[in-house]
Amino acid sequence: MPEEIIERISNLKEFYKSGTKIDIFLVLRSVDKEELDGPYSSLISYLDNDEVLWIETPMNKGFPLILAPQDLVLVNVKKGKLIYQFQSLILERRKEPNTNLFLFALKAAKEVKKIERRNFFRLPVILDITLKIKKNIQDKDFIIFKGKTKDLSGGGVRVAVKSSDYKEIMKLIKEDYIIFIEFEIDKRKKINQKIKFVNSYTDEESKIGFISFYFDNIYRGIQDSIIRFLFAKQREMKQKGIEFDE
């Protein structure tokens, strides 16, 4: 398995500088509630006593993510070509004066996972996928679901499945089943990768469920193959005049 690069932060005040851009992913609600798919964009407000990090209200497509104490979030701190990642619990929230928005407090990590930013380049690409789910690693039989990718990156994938399958998949996720995904990036390259849940939402009008996963302990060679495929697809799309958010 590839080795994760864990880096200790030597200067917390510089690392958590006010105005630094971050992305927030909701990992686990203290009270069960479905949310709009992330990531949610936010900014660091300030670091309190080298221990507590205050962030502005995370937003996605104009919608705020109102967090509550004990919500678990995944934080991506953006620094040039690198992303530094950690998980933390929300400690408290405080309403900003004269607005409907909040500041949220979380414990500031002193060690973070360092990731190349290109791994988070996401492209809206449609591929056939198979989700293979089983109770534990010893099980030989899988529960199979079919779907499509909505977008893909070197770090993870968002899939679209019919609403009946979505409900069953989410039930298995809550029961901590193990999930693998299979898809082809060309006729000679099939990806078979373990994935873990990030977040999800449903489109009631189309009766489709969308689930985001990250690739768990992906080999560097496999990840590089996916990224090369995405850059090639991006060039094709630009040549055809197709616009998308990078």
Automatic annotation (TrEMBL):
Type III secretion system flagellar brake protein YcgR PilZN domain: which residues?
A: 19-103
What InterPro entries does the database record attribute to this sequence? Answer: PilZ_domain, T3SS_YcgR_PilZN
Q: Which Pfam families match?
A: PilZ (PF07238), PilZNR (PF12945)
Q: Name the UniProt key words of this record, in alphabetical order.
A: Cell projection, Cilium, Flagellum
Residues in PilZ domain copies: 116-231
Q: What GO annotations for molecular function exist for this entry?
A: cyclic-di-GMP binding
- Keyword 4Fe-4S recorded: no
The protein depicted here goes by the name: Flagellar protein YcgR
